[in-house]
């Protein structure tokens, strides 16, 4: 029996979708369309500064509904995307390197973690965009967060894996990320992303942030990656989690 060969895939995730970045995220989404990327995973922050996103920007609800109708997936990106409690010194140091004050779940106990996850999901549900998956801000996961996610979401994504089936299965798919929070990250991350795309396996995961548009070298790196990925089929994280 002939073996069925699965096409190479491209999974783009657009982080930090919220009222303050809405126009820029819409611009990035159109830019990706121009490059032939017809499926993207949009990571929505439910309540920046504790205000539900749909109260601040009701038009975002219509935009997200349109994007989902055209094939995009929506994932929950924390609750407020801001750390409110310090973690243990070693964990705090790592969280600071990963994403500064965005490491929302570092320092929270199990009850606080569960409340934040549920509150974020409730905000998205009220906006009519209930998600199937979750990505932690700054990719900063804790044991308490993983325990909560196993009973609330079909999948979640770390920097290196896409985890599904309630945490029972994990697929190795490293994400290529551009950094803007330090001079070193701004200088090196475009080179790392270009190199990583060249050796990517079956799935090429590419992370984008609204701030990437402020840096010409970041834009150049993304365009180079997308040109090199023309033969790949764009998929969402929802599709990755179900084996598409």
Features:
DUF2334 domain-containing protein; 10-stranded mixed β-sheet; 244 residues; Glyco_hydro/deAcase_b/a-brl; single chain; globular; 9 helices; alpha/beta; TIM Barrel
Describe the fold and architecture:
- InterPro entries: DUF2334, Glyco_hydro/deAcase_b/a-brl.
- This is DUF2334 domain-containing protein.
- By secondary structure, the chain is an alpha/beta fold.
- It has a single domain, classed as TIM Barrel (Alpha-Beta Barrel).
- The radius of gyration is 17 Å and the shape is globular.
- It contains nine helices and ten strands.
- Strands 1, 2, 3, 4, 5, 6, 7, 8, 9 and 10 form a ten-stranded mixed sheet that branches.
- Strand 6 (161-164) and strand 7 form a beta hairpin.
Structure at a glance:
The protein is an alpha/beta fold and 244 residues long. The chain is 40% helix and 17% strand.
Q: What's the β-strand tally?
A: 10
Q: Which residue ranges are poorly predicted, with pLDDT under 50 across at least 5 consecutive positions? A: none
As a whole number of angstroms, the C-alpha radius of gyration is: 17 Å
* Overall shape: globular
CATH architecture: Alpha-Beta Barrel
CATH topology: TIM Barrel
Helix content: 25-40%
Mean pLDDT: 91
Distance between the termini: 21 Å
Helices, by number, come to 9
Order of helices and strands: EHEHHEHHEHEEEEHEHEH
Strand content: 15-25%
State the fourth-level CATH superfamily. Glycoside hydrolase/deacetylase
Largest sheet: 10 strands, mixed
């Amino acid at each position: 029996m002939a073996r069925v060969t699965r096409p190479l895939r491209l999974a783009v995730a657009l982080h930090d979708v919220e009222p303050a970045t809405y126009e820029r995220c819409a611009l990035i989404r159109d830019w990706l369309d121009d490059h032939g990327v017809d499926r993207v995973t949009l990571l929505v922050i439910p309540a920046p500064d504790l205000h539900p996103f749909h109260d601040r920007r009701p038009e975002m609800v219509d935009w997200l509904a349109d994007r989902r109708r055209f094939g995009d997936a929506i994932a929950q990106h924390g609750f407020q995307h801001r750390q409110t409690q310090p973690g243990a010194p070693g964990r705090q140091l790592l969280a600071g390197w990963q994403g500064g004050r965005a490491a929302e779940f570092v320092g929270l106990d199990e009850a606080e973690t569960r409340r934040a996850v549920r509150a974020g999901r409730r905000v998205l549900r009220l906006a009519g965009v209930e998600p199937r998956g979750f990505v932690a801000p700054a990719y900063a996961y804790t044991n308490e967060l993983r325990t909560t996610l196993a009973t609330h979401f079909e999948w979640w994504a770390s920097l290196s894996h896409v985890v599904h089936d309630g945490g029972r299965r994990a697929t190795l798919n490293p994400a290529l990320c551009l950094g803007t929070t330090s001079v070193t990250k701004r200088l090196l991350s475009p080179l790392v992303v270009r190199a990583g795309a060249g050796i990517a396996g079956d799935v090429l995961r590419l992370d984008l942030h609204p701030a990437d548009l402020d840096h010409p070298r970041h834009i150049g790196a993304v365009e180079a990656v997308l040109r090199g990925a023309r033969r790949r089929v764009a998929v969402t994280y929802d599709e990755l989690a179900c084996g598409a």
